[in-house]
Design a protein that fits this description.
By secondary structure, this protein is mainly alpha-helical. It has helices at 3-14, 20-39, 44-51, 54-68, 78-82, 86-93, 105-153. It is built from 7 helices and no strands.
Length: 154
């Protein structure tokens, strides 16, 4: 089996178990990994033997996605498993990649609550500091209005 046949079998085995963008990410990762290892001097046959049967590799990927509850799968956890480095593959191919981080909903909610509490704390602290000045100003305005109203009534 050559690299293209391996990739095709992997892609086929992943189909139906995850979105097409997730499949594309895993396929891209393994293409880059294989190319990187070939660039290091290893043979394609040796690399594919190490990776194993594409169907079993796909099953591992799908199981890992289910266990982690990941809505968007990532091939990052397989770096240790296959001994490769995604950064090395990207450096070799000249690709720069932006990693998107998907936070769980509960964590996003926690962050929003903490930020809201901080904002409320800052606003209340400012009110506490400036309350005497504001109250004094309001009292002076009230006295002025009362005096003006008294003068207008005469």
């Amino acid at each position: 089996m050559d690299k293209e046949e391996f990739i095709m079998k992997l892609q086929h085995a992943l189909a139906g178990g995850m979105s097409s963008s997730q499949i594309a990410e895993h396929v891209r990762y393994y293409r880059e990994y294989i190319d990187s290892e070939i660039h290091k001097g290893r043979t394609e046959e040796e690399i594919l033997r190490q990776l194993g049967e594409p169907r079993l590799l796909a099953r591992s990927i799908l199981d890992a996605n289910r266990r982690s509850g990941a809505a968007s799968g990532s091939a990052q956890e397989y770096d240790d498993e296959v001994g490769g480095s995604r950064r090395e593959a990207n450096r070799y191919n000249g690709n720069s990649q932006v990693r998107k981080v998907a936070l769980p909903g509960w964590l996003v909610m926690l962050i929003v609550v903490v930020i809201a509490m901080l904002v409320i704390g800052v606003v209340s602290s400012l009110l506490y500091i400036f309350a005497p000045v504001i109250m004094t100003g309001l009292i002076v305005l009230l006295i002025v209005k009362v005096i003006q109203g008294h003068h207008n009534n005469r």
